[in-house]
Amino acid sequence: MMTAPRTRPGEHRAPRRTRVPVRLRAALGLGVLLGTGTISTHAFWTDAVTVTGATFSAGTIDLKVNNVDSAADFSTISLSGMVPGNTAAGVLTVKNAGTAPLKYTATSAATNADGKNLAGALVVKVTADSATTGAPPSRTCAGSALAGTGTSLTGSLVGTGRLLTAGASETLCVQVTLPATAASALQGGTTSATLTFSGTSDLS
Length: 204
Prior knowledge:
By secondary structure, the protein is mainly beta. Helix content is 10%, strand content 26%. It has a domain at 63-183. The radius of gyration is 47 Å and the shape is elongated.
């Protein structure tokens, strides 16, 4: 049986040190070094620039025919007492009075109140002429028909959209002919035509 060493009166014994293995001391020291490395901070300089002044506004398209927005008069093309071979013609000015480009098309509708369908017999031609040629009942549009235009008073008149930039205008000459082969049953027939022009900002 082992007994603890006795201490003499007045003598103090130093506490016994616990030995730590060398490898463990090295590992603990490395942990201290790593820990101090993660708490270091860095300062960065920064700068910023604000960009202003960008503004946006919506454009306008304003389709006018003969310089009006609606109900443009086209009585200049009217012709009464037509017989086979006669032609009537008149010029319209189409304008974009807006601030953005547009494309326009046109359709035509005609009445048949007497049931004789004179409208169905009439043949239409649309050109880019700025003036008519000849005098009634043989007034014509001398130029060639524009691509994408129709030949009837009852349907598409300008089927392919025509581009007008802001402030631009162009003339259309419309010619209406009663063919030389028109049926005798059309005698006394009458019809009224309405042309409708439509503009769009879709330029595709």
